[in-house]
Amino acid sequence: MHIVIVGVGGVGGFFGGKLIQSGCKVTLIARGVHKKAILAQGLHIKSVDGDFNVHPHLVTDDVSRVEPADLILLCTKSWQVKQAANQIKHLIKENTLVLPLQNGADNAEKVLEIIDKKHVIGGLCKIYSKIEAPGIINHFGFVPEIIFGALHTISNDRLEEVSTLFDKAKIKNKIAKDIQVAIWQKFLFIATVSGLGGLTRATLGVLYEDKNLRDLLERTAQEICAVAQAKHINLPEDSVSAVMNIIKNQPYDATASTQRDIMEGRPSELENFNGFMVREGERLGVPTPVNSFIYYCLMPMEKKARA
């Protein structure tokens, strides 16, 4: 089975590394000094579960060099999803599956604008990881997990094949009965903490510990749930209290990847988190005052980063 990883950052680098370590034929789509380092010395994974170094079947920034794939993991940032989907169209054969793992609530929908629904499954991942240096991925925190599931008519047998592949690579995984609910539950957490974390420069522990900031977190989550309800996403009734409990139990010094991008002056997923809530709220007639405040306060910095 040939697996293609598009985007070799904290997510794609870690899961790609685990798949290579298990003996899978893996192509990494990387660029710049990161690509050069992997070509020269392999991909090095530093992990709380043990460090290892692997060499992919191919690492390239030229997608035209890549042969058709059985499974494609899209691990770019959410604003890059459409571009990535266009790049990999020629890699798709009859039974290819495409699994987007970005943060955000509408990544699969973006892929479906470009790739036929018989190839696309929905997914998300839970992981704390980052590029520490060119060719080096640092995984820190808890055991990573991939959750995925059918969006349309893909058979359970094909999903089980993917699960077996992840099992072989010792990647914790789960097939969701309702992948849209799972995606929105992850989105509820990451969108709640990312923007406010970027605005305050505070860790998750500080955000939760401060009564006023905790209240803003809760109001952000309430607005996201209201938008989800208007979109007929069947989030559980206790979703707000559940996500607040998740935030409470995160490592005190933890920060979200989007927050770190904002703090370090890089383009972030602000548009796909708080910005998405503002636009969907306007479209559906759902007020989103806290998300709007966070979004518009951070926009000048986002524009500067993208310039």
From TrEMBL:
Protein name: 2-dehydropantoate 2-reductase
Pathway given in the UniProt record: Cofactor biosynthesis; (R)-pantothenate biosynthesis; (R)-pantoate from 3-methyl-2-oxobutanoate: step 2/2
Enzyme Commission code: 1.1.1.169
Enzyme class: oxidoreductase
Species annotation: Aquimarina intermedia
Gene3D superfamilies, per the entry: N-(1-d-carboxylethyl)-l-norvaline Dehydrogenase, domain 2, NAD(P)-binding Rossmann-like Domain
UniProt GO BP: pantothenate biosynthetic process
Keywords: NADP, Oxidoreductase, Pantothenate biosynthesis
